[in-house]
Amino acid sequence: MKLLTCFFFIITIQTCWAEKSPVADSVRVKWKTEFSTGVNLNQSSFSDNWKGGGSNTFATGWYLNHNATVNNKSWRLISDLSMQVGFLQNKTQSLRKNIDRIFYEFKAGYRISPQMDFYGSTNFQTQFFQGFEYGKKNKLGIPVDSVVSSLFAPAYLTTSLGLEYHPNKEYYTRVGIGSLRQTFVFDERFSRAGLFGLERPGDNIRNQFVLQLLFNVERDIFENVNMKARYTSLIDYFRMGNPNSIVHRFDANFTMKVNKYLSTNLQAVLYKDPDQDPNWQFSQILSMGLVYRIIK
Predict the structure, then answer these.
(1) The listed CATH number (2.30.30, 2.40.50, 2.40.230, 2.60.120) that belongs to domain 35-295
(2) Which of 34, 111, 247, 283 would bridge with 234, disulfide CB 3.0–4.6 Å?
(3) Which backbone phi and psi does 24 adopt, to 5 degrees?
(4) Distance (Å, rounded) from C-alpha 75 to C-alpha 106?
(5) Helix or strand or coil: residue 259?
(6) Hey, where are the domains in the chain?
(7) What's the Cα-to-Cα distance from 169 to each of 32, 67, 87, 107, 245, rounded to whole Å?
(8) pLDDT band, residue 146 (cuts 50/70/90)
């Protein structure tokens, strides 16, 4: 919980810096913010090895997104917070979750040319609740529900320094030459088992020096239809000869605005982390619901 407190403290400091610092007064008025929150009706499907836990069914969910940007002659600053959680319950099943994510990223880019920045970024990811694999049989052939993840088990903090290329407003790519990926496992059930790539059973933190590659596209493909696609790979410098040295994650999000208060959203995630599972993991969610949005 100390790390969670520190995480929200960093967000608070970043907000206060934009609002109160005399040095930032000239920047503060240029912050552009967008806040949205809503509830959805979801249809979900997952691959058998999806480690976040899930079930193919209908469900309700809640989400909150906050994005703040600065774009001036010297700096490109981005603060991006995304939280999602959803639950389901069938008549023959106990309460289950079908989506669960906490994501925060802050990036500061200093312009060194019209299309190139030197950047530093911090990216944090975890989940709120325990994740389960349901109905797998034990050695006696009896179906059981197995805990496979929980809050800060795992959590990932990636700090990166490198170059960002952005030829236009719709596309950018980053090369994080100096990047540190930290894996946190604060649940003793997983720590003692040495899961999520921990070097020794009982460890709580794993540090990896990695090369980060990121490609991001955001554009309106039709009227009232927005597409966001993001691919990230992390390559462990000390395991480059090992075929299991690369973490891949591809996120695609399509949003159709029905009107001011209604929207339809399709999300898909393709993910491979050899320290979690040797195979690809897949998640797909189709949702429609109410949204409340503020843009400043």
Answers:
(1) 2.40.230
(2) 247
(3) -95, 5
(4) 13
(5) coil
(6) 35-295
(7) 15, 16, 36, 16, 32
(8) confident
Where helices occur in 21-79 by DSSP H, the ranges are 25-28
Contact in structure between 244 and 235 (CB atoms under 8 Å)? no
Burial of 130 (0-12, 13-18, 19+ CB in 10 A): middle
Amino acid at 274: P
Q: Is 56 exposed, middle or buried (0-12, 13-18, 19+ CB in 10 A)?
A: exposed
Q: What is the DSSP letter of 24?
A: G
Any alpha helices (H) in the chain, and if so which ranges? 2-20, 25-28, 188-191
Residue 93 confidence (pLDDT): 75
**CA pair distance 234, 181, nearest whole angstrom:** 8
pLDDT-derived band at 4, boundaries 50, 70, 90: very low
**Rounded to an integer, what distance in angstroms lies between the CA atom of residue 282 and that of residue 45?**
8
Rounded Cα distance, 290 and 56, in Å: 22
- CB count within 10 Å of CB 77 equals 21
Q: What's the pTM?
A: 0.84
Residues 6+ apart with CB under 8 A from 1: none
Checking if the pLDDT of 16 tops 70, the result is: no
pLDDT above 70 as % of the chain: 84
Pairwise CA distance, residues 282 & 280, whole Å = 7
Number of residues assigned to the chain: 296
Cα→Cα distances 76→27, 176, 215, 233, Å:
11, 16, 17, 23
pLDDT per position as a tens digit, 227-254: 999 999 999 999 988 878 899 999 999 9
Q: Record the tokens describing residue 66, joined without a space.
A: 């906050």
